[in-house]
Structures are given as C-alpha cells and as structure tokens.
Amino acid sequence: MYGSLLAASVVAGASAGGTPHPLDLAAAVLSTGLIFWVAHVYARLVGERGATAHPYRSRVRVVARREWPLVEAAIPPAFAALVGWSAGLSRDGVAWLALVVALVGQVSWAVAATVRARAPRPTVVASAFINLGLGLLIVLLEVIFLH
User: Fold this and answer.
1) pTM for the complete prediction?
2) How far apart (Å, rounded) are the C-alpha atoms in residues 16 and 53?
C-alpha cells in the first residue's frame, strides 16, 4: 500500500509545473521506488542491529526481500506511463493513467492484506475505502495545486 501511495505521489509531484515526458515520469517513479527501498532496508538493518554492528548477508537479503514491494508497486504505474505513451496518449493522459494505475494498486494491496489477515468483510471493505480515500486525496491535491 505504501509503495503504491508513494508512486501516486511521485506521479502527482512530477506533474508540477507541467507534465513530464512519459519516459521521465516512468524513470522518476521507478527510481523513487528503488531509493525508498534502499532507505527502508538500511533503516531496518540499522534499527535492528545498531549503527556500529554489521548485519549478516543473509539478514540483508531477508530484509531486502521484505521491503521489495516498494519497488514492485512502482512497476505498474511506470509501465502504464510507457504503454500510454506508446498508445499515443497526451502527456496529461499518460500522467492520469499512471496515477489511476497506482491508485488501483494501492486499493488492491489493501484488500489483499486484509483478506490475507483473515479480517472480517467489513474490515476489508473499510480498508479498501480508506485507501481509495487516501488516493483520491492525492488526486484532489494534484487538481488543486498542480493543474
């Protein structure tokens, strides 16, 4: 969920001052996901072991795998930007497509997580609507401040 929200934020933020070229948009979404992934892995390892201890390579791999969804969440909106561009959408159309794909991913991850946790149906529905609301808030902020 966090990775999809991050991707949506990058798409919205990248559109400030004019919509970027779709290749730049895709690169921004993917590189931000990768940078946040590295930062999360580092923060977790330092938090677990302390700043002076060196983590075992096996632990680094485990943490890196656990945080990988940050990168995975960036792939669909980046791919959508490239597909939209190759389909001839305008730059604004590409940005909106990438944003919608990020929001769909965010809601999907929320539903998957609550279903996997065996949460009751009302909790699954509430999680979906909360995440949809967060995503729509990003869209609203983009419309108000960036366009």
Assistant:
1) 0.84
2) 42
**Residue range 65-106, pLDDT digits in tens:** 999 999 999 999 999 999 999 999 999 899 989 999 999 999
What is the spatial distance between Cα 8 and Cα 100, in angstroms, rounded to a whole number? 8
Question: What span, in angstroms and rounded, lies between the C-alpha atoms of 28 and 20?
Answer: 10
Q: How far apart are CA 143 and CA 117, in angstroms?
A: 35
- Which residues, other chains included, contact 128 with Cβ-Cβ below 8 Å and sequence gap of 6+? 107, 110, 111
Task: Read off φ and ψ for residue 137, nearest 5 degrees.
Answer: -65, -40
Q: Is 112 helix (H, G, I), strand (E, B) or coil?
A: helix
- Classify residue 2 as exposed, middle or buried by CB count within 10 Å of its CB (0-12, 13-18, 19+): middle
CB 108 within 8 A of CB 70: no
Residue 92 and residue 82: Cα distance in Å, rounded?
13
Output DSSP code: residue 145: I
What lies within 8 Å, CB to CB, of 44 at 6+ separation is: 63, 66, 67
The whole-angstrom separation of Cα 40 and Cα 24 is 24
